[in-house]
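Work Package 4 report. The design task specified in the project plan requires that, given a folded chain encoded as structure tokens, an amino acid be chosen for each position. We show below one input record used in the internal validation round.
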């Protein structure tokens, strides 16, 4: 099994980019949220965030079953990429979006103020990046700034990176915002 992972904060383009990439490469795309739901891995509902709470052990079991077939290549996208067995992962792409642009995107989606703030803070701090680096290591994890890229442009960039195998780049919004004196605009007390 060869797995291409797409992760990132909500609003960075994971779902659309994964669909385009899957089509471009003629491979199946699986949403980890949908896999969790289909596999009965939603253990409760977080009413404040209006989202399901994942039973991680259940999802790991579903992922192990999914990745048993060593002849397939898949694109897996979602928030739980760090649960995918490392041995099946070939590429990890974390989509990143400038916090200001991300705040606009999430507000347009009619997220609550708390949910917007929580996700923007996660992006500033690089939570998805750090989880991926911890799970898969420096050499497998590539970050892509989607702030000014369309989904087709991002998918094309990923396909290009997969052919060229360059050294991974890192995005540090916190350092950029500190340099600009704007950290307080994006982090709550």
């Amino acid at each position: 099994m060869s797995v291409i992972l797409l992760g990132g904060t909500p609003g960075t383009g994971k779902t659309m980019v994964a669909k385009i990439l899957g089509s471009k490469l003629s491979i199946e795309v699986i949403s980890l949220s949908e896999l969790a739901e289909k596999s009965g891995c939603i253990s409760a509902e977080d009413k404040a965030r209006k989202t399901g709470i994942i039973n991680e052990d259940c999802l790991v079991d579903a992922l192990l079953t999914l990745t048993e077939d060593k002849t397939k290549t898949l694109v897996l996208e979602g928030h739980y990429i760090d649960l995918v067995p490392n041995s099946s992962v070939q590429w990890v792409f974390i989509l990143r979006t400038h916090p200001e642009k991300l705040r606009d995107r999430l507000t347009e989606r009619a997220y609550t103020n708390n949910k917007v703030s929580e996700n923007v803070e996660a992006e500033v701090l690089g939570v998805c990046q750090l989880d991926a680096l911890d799970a898969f290591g420096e050499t497998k994890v590539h970050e892509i700034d989607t702030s000014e890229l369309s989904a087709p442009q991002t998918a094309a960039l990923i396909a290009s990176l997969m052919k060229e195998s360059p050294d991974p780049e890192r995005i540090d919004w916190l350092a950029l915002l500190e340099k600009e004196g704007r950290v307080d605009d994006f982090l709550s007390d």
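The first strand starts at residue 2 and ends at 8. Validation will be extended to a larger panel in the next phase.
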